[in-house]
Write the structure tokens for this entry.
Amino acid sequence: MYPPRRKSTVPHLAPHIDHLGASGIREIVNLVLASDRDIARLEVGEPGFPTPDHIVEAAVRAARSGIGYTHSAGMQALREAIAESVERRYGTAVPFDRVIVCQGAGQGISAVLSAVLSTGDEVLVPDPSWPNYAMLTVLHGARPVFYGLRPENGFAPDLAELESLVTERTRVIILNSPGNPTGAVLPRDVIGKIVAFAADRGILVISDEVYDELIFDGEPADAAGFGTDNVVSAFSFSKTYAMTGWRVGYVIAPEWLAPTLVHVQEPLLSCISGVSQMAAIAALQGPQAPVAAMRDAYRAHRDLAVSLLEPTIPVVRPEGAFYLMIPLAPGVDSRTAALELVEYGVAVAPGSAFGQVAADHVRISLASGTDVLRTGIERFLTWHDVTEAGLRPAIAASTAVH
């Protein structure tokens, strides 16, 4: 006899999915894409340059020659090229088998979290920061605990606050320098203190360094250079080489963790596109002049944006990446402001998309063309002047719909 059939029911979602949240940036992007207005787009963090020709040509050659599956950790030739590049940039010798090639830095960070987190664990996440840190934490059944990066402190962490948030469930601290959305470059001594503090407590540090070659002032984070066994550094080809669509990044992991990350990647994606990996080798071994040219352009855009804004609005001058945070009047809700700014012909990312600390800021991208950047800031200032002049009701946070 077979047991009686159960009444048919709809499968349920995992409980933590309810806490995943949605992208506040994507809301603006979708609004812009649906609009027929002339809109200066400053909301998306994407390089305003094409991928350099020698990288594209390497990919074409690879595709034409035929290329199949590769090692789950990436081609050995690429891993060796990455190790050589890291040693050249930072003077840190890294064996190639501690390099794991990922489908962008975000997937690499996800693999690390898969390897070290259990349900109910905690991850210290900067606020403001790239929203995917918190989203990935939730996806792994853990809880994000936020530490503040406040504008009055140059968007740098307060070490005492960070330490006070550590509990017996804390497994990971996430650092990001240069920072998204702030453009802040953390001082090396601050990074060293956080790494040492975490090492003393058996906490893993994930150091997101995807903007490491887009620094205007200050030094790269190089968190792994402190010589401890508790740092995973994440990098990407997307921003440095204008390769956002190629989806190649990498993590450098301690010896005890690297083999596990390779195993985690096997069921997730088998391997990264071989064509993209050949392009990444060309990026590392080919001319680096395009990187310097892009960095110089972003620095010029930073200086232009600050010069246009500062007579009216004091800003924290970004030291790297290609973002700038603009403060609104206290209590103004950045989401509502960003929605309204689209009507003024400029798209910005609301600060609330990155956390609560900068919920009364908006982020602009400095990676757009010079004319687009100038036009967008001028339109923003027009909106700002109208608001300040009281010609329409203020946008109060209490009226915002979240």
